[in-house]
Design brief:
Blueprint (H helix, E strand, L loop, with lengths): L2 H7 L4 H21 L4 H17 L4 E2 L2 E2 H14 L6 H8 L3 H9 L5 H12 L1 H9 L11 H15 L1 H17 L6 H10 L2 H9 L8 H21 L5
Helix pairs in contact: 2-4, 3-5, 4-5, 4-10, 5-8, 5-10, 6-7, 7-8, 9-10, 9-12, 10-13, 11-13, 12-13
């Protein structure tokens, strides 16, 4: 990307960057977002991005590299929510690391050991935030989507900053449904739709560490997601 394009992506909507410039553009936007941060924070954030890119290098999310999703989640937290907390942004970049790649993080492949590895490299708060947004290993014989929603509600009620990461993650997942077709579209809409009112309630709690404009932005996006899910689900019968 040339200098003019880098200036442009610093102001573009995230979906437009993704469409026009892909991973390169999102990485340029991430660099622009952290440019004014202290050097120590920049090194740590770039370290988290490098690890996320390494772990998810072979992963794809529909039509794009999985790291694009992680970048958008982190950028949204900084750009749209106004967060300047390095631990939160690191955890956003690594929010799927333990769930998807515990074996690469720890020799024994357990989630506990993977979280311990993150704690050693990035600090215990980052590891705790990743743990809070990591989906549980589900109990056989029970509906997995129901267990997912129960975990989200319980975990996010305890950890206000985890709500911020999940809000950005959920927003990106909801937007991503426009690129999904067939039975998977209806299955994901059915999984996510019941979580909308839960997230709306949690984001509205007084201890959610965001200013009023960021909260309202999230609540508006959740409302739009609910409309999208409602439009999808009737077709599933």
């Amino acid at each position: 990307m040339d200098t003019g394009e880098r200036r442009l992506v610093a102001t573009m909507p995230l979906h437009a960057i993704t469409s026009a410039y892909g991973e390169e553009g999102l990485r340029a936007r991430f660099a622009a977002e952290i440019e004014a941060w202290p050097q120590a924070d920049q090194r740590r954030l770039n370290q988290a991005l490098a690890l996320a890119g390494q772990l998810h290098a072979a992963d794809r999310r529909e039509r794009e590299p999985y790291v694009n999703h992680l970048l958008r989640v982190a950028i949204r937290i900084m750009s749209h929510y106004g967060v300047r907390d390095g631990d939160v942004v690191c955890a956003a970049l690594l929010h799927d690391a333990v769930e998807d790649h515990a074996a690469e993080l720890a020799p024994d492949g357990t989630r506990a050991a993977a979280l311990a590895a993150l704690a050693e490299e990035f600090g215990p708060r980052v590891a705790a935030l990743v743990a809070a947004v990591t989906n549980p290993e589900y109990t056989p014989g029970r509906d997995a989507d129901e267990q997912y929603r129960e975990h989200v509600a319980e975990s996010l009620r305890r950890d206000p900053w985890a709500r911020v990461i999940k809000a950005s993650d959920f927003t990106d997942n909801g937007v991503g449904l426009i690129h999904t077709t067939g039975p998977r579209l209806h299955r994901l809409a059915g999984k996510y739709a019941p979580l909308v009112p839960v997230l709306q309630e949690l984001i509205a709690l007084p201890d959610t560490p965001l200013g009023a404009p960021a909260r309202q932005r999230i609540l508006t996006q959740l409302g739009q997601a609910a409309d999208r899910f409602a439009a999808i689900l009737p077709a599933s019968g």
